Amino acid sequence: MVLGFGARRLLGLRIGALRSLLTGCTGLLATGLVSSAMGPAAAGTVLVTVQVGSALLAAMMFLALSEAVVPSGSVGGIVRWPRSVRRRVARTQRFTELSRIALRHGLGRLPRLSGLTGPATSATRAEHARALRLALEEAGTTFVKLGQVLSTRYDLLPAEFIDELSLLQCAAAAEPWDGIEQVLTEDLGAPPGEVFAEFDTVPLAAGSVAQVHRARLRDGRAVAVKVQRPRARQVVERDLDILLRIARRTGERTAWGRSIGVTGLVRGFAASLQEELDFRTEARNTREVAAARAADAGGHPSQDPDPRPAVKIPAVHDDLTTARVLVVEWLDGVALDKAAESADARGLDRTALAGALLDCVLAQIMTDGVFHADPHPGNIMVLDDGRLGLLDFGCAGRIDRVLRSALRDLLVAIHRNDQQALCDALLELVEHRPEPADENRLTRDLGRFMARHLVPGTRPDREMFAALFLLVTKYGLVVPGEIAAAFRSLSTLEVSLGRLVPEYDIVAEARRFAASQARRKLAPGSLGRAATGEMLALLPVLRRLPRRVDRIAEALEQGRLSVNVRVLADERDRDFVRGIVRDVLLAFSGGAAGVVGVMLLQTPGGPEITSSVGLFEALGCNLLLVASVLTLRVLFSLSRDRR
Question: DSSP characters for 282-299?
Fold first, then answer.
């Protein structure tokens, strides 16, 4: 145990009792081997230090090797090994199945999926894109949703892939009623017949994760009940584990994977999908969006004589909502896919409906800070009372106040056709600013972009979004995930608006929204609220300002004014420098000890300690052991830092 403790201290590790015992046994075994090799004549002489040093060096080598093979904390216990083996077997089987799907659809010939590289001809790209779509559909829920996310990444994929992946749908066969009834009973604490007055066992819609049933509460209110499939979470988590492993290897081994940050993309997708699996998150998103819309409508009364909001968000029944069951208010209407003819038959103004929908989503993004991230036609309804209904808030985005302000500035710059203001707003959104010279070129490129895509008479299309994202990529700018989600939401919304009004000009309407927002900000009431908020924030600063000015003036008058700059004020910086200095000193000391030890062993003569051992030989052997210990410590430290 003493040898194990010494080896652990020298390597800077914390290990358990079992590993410490094995390390000590290894050291004792090394002591026996060295002692037998040196013979009985070495016992009781100064060469005992060589034997002890050899034992310590062997213990350190064993500990370093065992840490490399089985790192501390990686094995939680023998009892968990069978479960880990089962997971590994299941993952291997699923990976084999995915490989067969890929090979069956010819994805082995698929080149790198970057927007800048790929097949030479459009026909070949279209063929590969169709093969990829079919493979993702066959692979299941997780991969279909990944394809839907990729269908909005104009900066990563060619247009043929974008068009093909946009066709992906998550429709699936309905789950048998027995499985759905079991989920309802487990989560609600009673069979559905006892909780609801009526429950339709035939689903209205079935997706790969959940399906929706109509029901009626005991008080007579109609509700929609969304129930998660029994094994949906296990399937999604297994597939996400495989995706994350593939992404990590791709990011480590390929240049294009590192350039697009494939690991970060997949991690963000995994976090979003896991949120969707918890219906309590969807319930919270629904409440937050509804509350924000109600607060905004209360703060800015509309001139419309109808006091109801133009877009209805269903109320959530929190007492019946769990992680796998979501119960919301029932909305009577027609899905947007089939609403065009219905709206015309009822005399509804489709252009007004499209404008109300766009204003609602833009207000969520620009004003509220929480928005519907997937407003595709299946999540929008035209209600029987002539309003619109917004459904399924499982995928929602959040934007802080600073980014919302930059987005508003971006819209205002587009409205004014001001390329310099557009550049300034864009740089406020991204995470890495270019050098001043690059900033000037970016401004000129944005001017050319506006002249081509944002002039009157032009309509937004995929080419416009692709050009914008490629421009951002060209200058090495990194768009935050929440801003990318907002653009993805608007891109999806464009498709939905096109179902209501073909050739709908979303850019022109966004300009109108920006102008109306600017007028609202300049209204007396808004200016008063903004001024009040700013004054409340400034009051503590203004209260402390006179005292601080007086202190500075007094110090300046007495010649005591000074500026203190602390180098390495951050503890992490100090730890980094200490680590470098420590490793350098240890490496230098080990090298010096090794050189001196070799020189002493090569030096003839010298005092004799025993009849067979000289002083120079004893010192040389001990110094070589010291050099070996120090060198092993430095090498282990460097390899551990790299991991």
Answer: HHHHHHHHHHHHHHHHHH
Token look-up 């051992």 returns 613
User: Over the stretch 436-447, which tens digit does the pLDDT of each residue have?
Assistant: 657 888 888 888
What pLDDT does residue 183 have?
93
Q: Where are the alpha helices (DSSP H) in 154-231?
A: 159-165, 177-188, 192-195
Token couple for 396: 């929602």
Residue 327 backbone phi and psi in degrees, to 5:
-120, 120
Catalytic residue among 155, 239, 368, 374: 374
Quickly state the pLDDT bin for 79 (edges 50, 70, 90).
very low
- If you average pLDDT over residues 80-105, what whole number do you get? 78
pTM of the model: 0.65
Residue 53, exposed/middle/buried by CB under 10 A (0-12, 13-18, 19+)?
buried
Residue 575 known to be catalytic: no
Output the CA angle 629-632-633, nearest 5 degrees. 85
Question: In terms of Cα–Cα distance, which of 483, 294, 513, 288 is closest to 521?
Answer: 513
Across the range 357-385, mean pLDDT stands at 87
Q: How far apart are CA 136 and CA 127, in angstroms?
A: 14
Q: End-to-end CA distance of the chain: give it in Å, rounded.
A: 28
CB 598 within 8 A of CB 562: no
Q: Give the per-residue pLDDT at 165.
A: 80
CA distances from 121 to 128, 130, 132, 151, 462 (A): 11, 15, 17, 20, 19
Please say whether the dihedral angle defined by the alpha carbons of residues 423, 429, 430 and 435, taken in this order, is positive or negative.
positive
* 467 close to 421: Cβ distance less than 8 angstroms: no
Q: Grade residue 191 by pLDDT with cuts at 50, 70 and 90.
A: very high
Contact in structure between 79 and 121 (CB atoms under 8 Å): no
- CA atoms 13, 18, 19, 22: torsion sign: positive
Instruction: Write out the H or E segment, with its range, that includes residue 210.
Output: strand 210-216
* Spatial distance between the Cα atoms of 380 and 371, rounded to a whole number of angstroms: 14
Q: What is the pLDDT of residues 285-334, one digit of tens each?
A: 999 988 888 876 655 555 454 445 688 999 999 999 999 999 999 999 88
Mean of pLDDT over the chain: 79
Name the nearest CA neighbour of 337 among 301, 378, 383. 378
Tell me how far apart the alpha carbons of residues 137 and 364 are, in angstroms, rounded to a whole number: 32
The phi and psi torsions of 541 (rounded to 5 degrees) equal: -65, -45
In the structure, what pLDDT confidence band is assigned to residue 113 with cuts at 50, 70 and 90? very low
Q: Are strands 311-312 and 388-390 parallel, antiparallel or unpaired?
A: parallel
**Angstrom distance (rounded) from CA 473 to CA 478:** 8
